[in-house]
Amino acid sequence: MTRRSGFQKEVLSLYRRALRMVQTKPPSTRAKFLLFVRYNFHQNATNISPRQVGVIEHLMRQGRKQIEMYEDPSVKDCWVSKEMKEWNKQRT
């Protein structure tokens, strides 16, 4: 079993929180929320070096705020871009 750094643990915790948030949304929109979460985490993981500590901290703060906003029960849907849909098609 590999040991994870503090940042890795925080990112995984945020990702799990986002996945739990997806499960609270209406079944008709869960796929869109899941795509939104997966796409954003994947893009940030592939475009940012682990040495960019300031950028990672900024994205963690931004992600927490965004998830808090989406956790609100009144939020029922999210917007998914054409780019996100194409990325999803390439993965399947």
From TrEMBL:
One of its GO terms (cellular component) is mitochondrial matrix. It is found in: Mitochondrion matrix. It holds the Pfam family Complex1_LYR. The keyword Mitochondrion applies. Residues 9-69 form the Complex 1 LYR protein domain. Transmembrane segments: none annotated. Keywords: Chaperone, Mitochondrion. Belongs to the complex I LYR family. SDHAF1 subfamily. This is Complex 1 LYR protein domain-containing protein. It comes from Armillaria gallica.
